[in-house]
Amino acid sequence: MLDGVNETGDDEAAPEGGGDRGSAQGLTDRDRAVLSVERRSWPGPGAKERAIREQLGLSPTRYYQLLNALLDDPRALAHDPVTVNRLRRVREERRARR
């Protein structure tokens, strides 16, 4: 098992609203792993998506759904303010262009 996901890619997190949250700030191991992947820089197209699948056992679509939810979570902001604020700015810029 790696970061809350077992070898088959199944999420082993506790049910919504309870269970082991993983840290004093309340983020699960998977939440912290998602932020960690996003914090890195990636060498080229496809490398990030490959890492998402291999390291987290998630599809890129599911990864971005989780990431978007984390951007609105105050616990994520407390855990990694630089990354969360950067991604919030990017998200707002994209929304403004629509």
Keyphrases for this structure?
single chain, 98 residues, mainly alpha, globular
Task: Give a description of the structure.
The chain has five helices and no strands. Helices cover about 55% and strands about 0% of the residues. The protein is globular and about 30 Å long. The chain has helices at about 30-40, 45-55, 60-70, 75-80, 80-95. It comes from Streptomyces xinghaiensis. InterPro entries: DUF3263.
Rg over CA atoms, rounded to whole Å, is: 14 Å
Provide the low-confidence segments as ranges: 3-21
Fraction in helix = 55-70%
Sketch the major β-sheet: none
Distance between the termini: 40 Å
* Overall strand count: 0
Number of domains: 1
Q: State the order of secondary-structure elements, H for helix, E for strand.
A: HHHHH
Total DSSP helices: 5
**Average residue-wise pLDDT:** 83
Shape: globular
* Structural class by secondary-structure content: mainly alpha
% residues in beta strands = under 5%
